[in-house]
Amino acid sequence: MVRRMEAAELGAVAEIWLEANLDAHDFVPAIYWRSQLEPVREAISKAEVYVYEEDGAILGFIGLDGETVEGIFVKKEARSRGIGKALLDRAREGRDLLELRVYSENWPAVKFYYREGFTLFGQDVDRATGQDESLMAWWA
């Protein structure tokens, strides 16, 4: 089930964020992700966040800032089960546009967004990590 995150779930959601980044972005030093945990916790607490819950456990989440997808994060053991798609489908409700940045080297994520109808419209570099980013958008 996809639903709005409750404040008490911030810790669990932040832990999913850290674990997913460490796993999916091994091309970025782990110390970077760990150093970002507290600022990200703060950002998550202020963002529009939806969680995917199953049997009382949070398995993933999507963070939004207006029409910007700040990220979709799913626990490693729960990937490839349609959770990311369910979260993205919830984000699309009531919106005609979604934009995002994804590390170009994170090919599984790039492929997921293409499959979900996103289009590449630019390239950039993440100043914090020096990694190439693909700028993608979806229109209704």
Automatic annotation (TrEMBL):
InterPro entries: Acyl_CoA_acyltransferase, GNAT_dom. This is GNAT family N-acetyltransferase. The keyword 4Fe-4S does not apply. It comes from the Bacteria. Keywords: Acyltransferase, Transferase. It comes from Candidatus Scatomorpha merdipullorum. Residues 1-140 form the N-acetyltransferase domain. CDD domains: NAT_SF. The keyword rRNA processing does not apply. One of its GO terms (molecular function) is acyltransferase activity, transferring groups other than amino-acyl groups.
